[in-house]
Amino acid sequence: MAQTCHTQTPIVLTIAGSDSGGGAGIQADIKAISATGSYACSVITAITSQNTQGVSAIFPIPLEHVASQLDAVFTDLNIVAVKIGMLADSNIIEVVASKIKQYQPQHLIVDPVMVATSGDLLLEQSAISTLKSQLLPLADIITPNLPEGAALTEQSVPQSEQAMNAMIADLRALGAGAVLLKGGHLEHDQNSNDLLITRDSVELISAKRHATKNTHGTGCTLSSAIASYLAQGNDVTQSVKLAKEYISQAIAHADELAVGQGHGPVHHFFAGSNFGKGSQHRD
After folding, report:
1. Which of 205-219, 228-242, 266-280 has the highest mean pLDDT?
2. Can you tell me the distance from the alpha carbon of 213 to that of 117, in angstroms, rounded to the nearest whole number?
3. Does the pLDDT at position 11 exceed 80?
4. How far does CA 11 lie from the centroid of its chain?
5. Distance between CA 60 and CA 92 in Å, rounded?
6. Pairing relationship of beta strands 39-51 and 107-110 according to DSSP bridges
7. What GO terms are given for molecular function (predicted)?
């Protein structure tokens, strides 16, 4: 009888909120993890009523159900990397941090979803303190954008690359293994420049900026891609570079999709999809 050769499947867990519109949150995470070659499993922390035009309602999942989801996947699946996104409050942060300490996955990526596009804080100050004290020091890498970096360091939002550099010491002090400070909000720059900050180095990770309004879910997608590449055996620097290349292409192809009336999603499956390539009409 022929024998089946079993190779280890790179499994990535995403812990985040659900986006009913499919562009961000758990839905974007699963798409990005799948598109970059890993297997995605999930723990949902909140259900949002959301589309390309905004969020109309948020329902946090009860704590015992967050915990039971975590136990279910960790006790069965060989989870190599974990990506954490939206955590609604201090209690959920504490539950997730406790389970991460209990199960000790090989890689942990935290995307600190804290600030809405409008600039409003999505987490109360007490929850930000819990995030900083209990979860961020466990992470291999955190991926704040500029408003989130400002909230974490209690500084003003950087308006230039020089101001991003001035934030480095305070970001290192958060205790994560590395920080990817994303410069996407500096829209006047020709390129989208991020800073990869480790304990002893800083590297500029740059990509061409693409003009499109369809950028919903970029942060979720990027952090999930980093987790996926880490699960496949790449180091942090290589994983960030591969993920930056992936999200740049997903943004570049975003206008091939026609989804919603507001800020549409990026194109997660640009490499192998017929989405947006036009319908074939027969006479």
Report:
1. 228-242
2. 13
3. yes
4. 16
5. 9
6. unpaired
7. kinase activity
DSSP-based three-state secondary structure for 96: helix
At residue 203, φ and ψ (nearest 5 deg) are -125, 135
Name the residue with tokens 């101001």: 163
Residue 34: which H helix or E strand, with range? helix 25-35
DSSP 138: G
Torsion sign across C-alpha atoms 246, 248, 252, 257: positive
C-beta of residue 207 within 8 angstroms of C-beta of residue 191: yes
Catalytic residues: 182, 215, 217-220
H/E run at residue 197? strand 191-198
Taking only the tens place, the pLDDT of each residue in 249-272 is 999 888 888 898 888 899 998 887
CB-based contacts of 205, cutoff 8 Å, min separation 6: 180, 193, 194, 195, 196, 240, 241, 244
